[in-house]
Amino acid sequence: MVDKSVTLESLTAQERITLIGRLWDSLDPAVAAPLSPALAAELDAREADADADPDAGISWSALRDELRARLR
User: Fold this and answer.
1) pLDDT (tens digit, 9 = 90+) per residue, 20-41?
2) 22-49 b/e with 16+ CB inside 10 Å = b?
3) In the chain, where are the structural domains located?
4) Which position among 1, 57, 62, 64 has the lowest Cβ density within 10 Å, counted as fewest Cβ atoms?
């Protein structure tokens, strides 16, 4: 049960982050973020593409550098 004598304002930033994480983890993903059939199909297709060619794409470091260059 929640201790109602503790206010959110009295929590430290880290305690609030921990609370957010615990609340998020307590949610049922199917209810909290339901997938439409179209989105599920798109994710399945993308996963199949990635599995078919695992070397496709670029590394995180290359993507990060590209994005940083665009911001300059």
Assistant:
1) 999 999 999 889 889 999 999 9
2) eeeeeeeeeeeeeeeeeeeeeeeeeeee
3) 9-54
4) 1
